[in-house]
Amino acid sequence: MMGKKLYLVMRVSEETDKYMQAAINEAKKGLSEGGIPIGSVMAENGKLIGRGHNQRVQQSDPMAHAEIDCLRNAGRVKNYGDTILYSTLMPCFLCAGAVVQFGIKKVVVGESRTFAGAEQFMKDHGVEIVNLDNKECFRMMQDFIKKNPLLWNEDIGK
């Protein structure tokens, strides 16, 4: 079993399901606009305060990742330590850097099989990572990559 990752199916709260579904809806919005299907939302004390999706293609902006778009749309937050960031895909180092910079303490991820991202970096900086290994998130990314391999490789810097 060496070298294989073990994925646990977690029982998640209704609130987590609600916010991850909102992130999935953002990913679908990005896809419908001709972009990459990655979505993100931010919650604070049980209230949705920001949402966003990857808009690198739509805006021709290499910084327009879903989590960055979500943070921009949330606006100024007095204490990010009280927020939870939800993303359909494990954040990359750019987005993980923003998580660490602003002191976000918890990130809930749809899946990381498609892209391992910066999980260890965030953990090393005290961020709790909850990986849902959500089948819809995984299937959405796999379908996109199969149809758009060059765009996917551009997005992850390959």
Write the layout of secondary structure elements.
Elements lengths: L13 H19 L6 E6 L2 E7 L2 H4 L6 H9 L8 E5 L5 H10 L3 E4 L9 H6 L3 E4 L3 H13 L1 H7 L3
Parallel strand pairs: 3-4, 4-5
Antiparallel strand pairs: 1-2, 1-3
Helix pairs in contact: 6-7
What would your notes on this structure say?
With 158 residues, the protein is an alpha/beta fold. Helices cover 43% and strands 16% of the residues. It has a five-stranded mixed β-sheet with strand order 2-1-3-4-5. Helix 6 crosses helix 7 (149-155). The model is unreliable at 6-10 (pLDDT under 50).
Instruction: For the record, give the distance between the C-alpha atoms at the N and C termini, rounded to a whole number.
Output: 29 Å
The percent range for strand residues is: 15-25%
* Rg on CA atoms, Å: 15 Å
Can you give the helix content as a percent range?
A: 40-55%
Shape: globular
Helix segment tally? 7
Poorly predicted regions are 6-10
Q: What's the mean pLDDT score?
A: 91
Strand order of the largest sheet: 2-1-3-4-5
User: What is the tally of beta strands?
Assistant: 5
**Secondary-structure element order, as H and E?**
HEEHHEHEHEHH
Largest sheet: 5 strands, mixed
User: Which structural class should the secondary elements be placed in?
Assistant: alpha/beta
- As an assembly, this protein is single chain
